[in-house]
Amino acid sequence: MKKSYCPIDTFINVVKGKRKGTIILHLFQGDKRYSELVSLLTDISERMLTKQLRELESDGLINRTVFAEVPPRVEYSLTELGKRIHPVLKEMYKGGALFEESIDDSQH
Question: Under a CB-based contact definition with an 8 Å cutoff, are residues 62 and 25 in contact?
Fold first, then answer.
């Protein structure tokens, strides 16, 4: 995570990426195994999902826990920081829905 000129830009730079916001929203509902996230996010490749998870972990928003089992089990959960940004992402979701509604209205 790197500071930008403006805190808004810092926030956007951390959460931008293929479905990072959606990953955080899913994890707010509870810890998820990797396979559960694959099932929930069918519009991105597993390679891209792995990349986004690594970036979210590196930025301190999610935890990755590997269980010593065969086969290995990996679970993802939100850190305290990840939980604290949930309300902001929820409002961004609402804002996105407003924009989508205006797009639908203008196309009819």
Answer: no
